């Protein structure tokens, strides 16, 4: 059973190729039981489970942008996100910093997901994966980014490119 939030299930057309006669690529994102996710809230003080709408919307929007960039017209990708563990941890014992996420070598981001890629004339490609980035602290551009989900988005970009980009985009 999937928990449906207003922002949790979205379908976006990735290419405006309808004018060319081929169906547009599509990305659909579902969050399975986000209330049970390990650590998917930016507003949490750290010990309760669950995901907030801000995280789900940001990750959904990012996956749609990746679909626009890497999927071919006619492809349909359905991603079921089953768990999220954001980079860093809240450390509420720090005075006046109870809402700060501390990034450490041992607090890398990870996302459990499954996907189905449908392509015209080919059988569906399905897989379950555990996506993580243990080297997230050494990513170029991390220091200059003010995006609170920079590590998760960079990790998903690498994963998406490796799985779905045509050879010329790799």
Q: How would you summarize this macromolecular structure in one to three sentences?
A:
With 170 residues, the protein is α+β, with helices and mostly antiparallel strands. Helices cover 19% and strands 24% of the residues. The protein is elongated and about 60 Å long.
How would you describe what is shown here?
This protein is α+β, with helices and mostly antiparallel strands and 170 residues long. The protein has one domain. Helix content is 19%, strand content 24%. The protein is built from two helices and seven strands; from the N terminus they run ββαβββββα. The strands form two sheets. A five-stranded mixed β-sheet has the order 1-2-3-6-7, with helices on one face. Strands 4-5 form a two-stranded antiparallel sheet. It is elongated and about 60 Å long. The termini are far apart. The N terminus is likely disordered.
Which helices and strands appear, and what pairs or packs with what?
Layout: E1 10-13, E2 26-31, H1 53-70, E3 76-85, E4 89-90, E5 101-102, E6 110-118, E7 125-132, H2 150-164
Parallel strand pairs: 2-3
Antiparallel strand pairs: 1-2, 3-6, 4-5, 6-7
- The span between the termini is 35 Å
- Average pLDDT, all residues: 82
Topology order in helix (H) and strand (E) letters? EEHEEEEEH
Estimate percent helicity.
10-25%
- Strand order in the sheet with the most strands: 1-2-3-6-7
Poorly predicted residue ranges: 1-19
| Beta-strand fraction estimate | 15-25%
Query: What is the helix tally?
Result: 2
Question: Could you tell me the radius of gyration in angstroms?
Answer: 17 Å
**Largest sheet properties:** 5 strands, mixed
Structural class: alpha+beta
**Total E-strand runs:** 7
Supply the number of structural domains.
1
* Shape verdict: elongated
């Amino acid at each position: 059973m999937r928990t449906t939030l207003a922002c949790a299930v979205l379908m976006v057309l990735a290419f405006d190729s309808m004018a060319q006669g081929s169906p547009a690529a599509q990305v659909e994102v579902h969050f399975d039981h986000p209330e049970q996710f390990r650590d998917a809230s930016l507003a949490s003080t750290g010990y309760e489970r669950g995901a907030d709408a801000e995280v789900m919307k940001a990750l959904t929007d990012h996956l749609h942008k990746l679909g626009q960039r890497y999927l071919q017209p006619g492809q349909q990708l359905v991603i079921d996100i089953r768990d999220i563990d954001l980079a860093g941890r809240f450390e509420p014992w720090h005075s006046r910093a109870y809402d700060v996420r501390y990034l450490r070598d041992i607090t890398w981001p990870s996302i459990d997901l499954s996907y189905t890629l449908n392509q015209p004339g080919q059988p569906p490609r399905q897989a379950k994966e555990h996506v993580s980035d243990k080297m997230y602290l050494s990513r170029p551009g991390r220091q200059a980014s003010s995006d609170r989900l920079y590590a998760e988005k960079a990790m998903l970009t690498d994963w998406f490119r490796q799985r779905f980009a045509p050879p010329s985009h790799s």
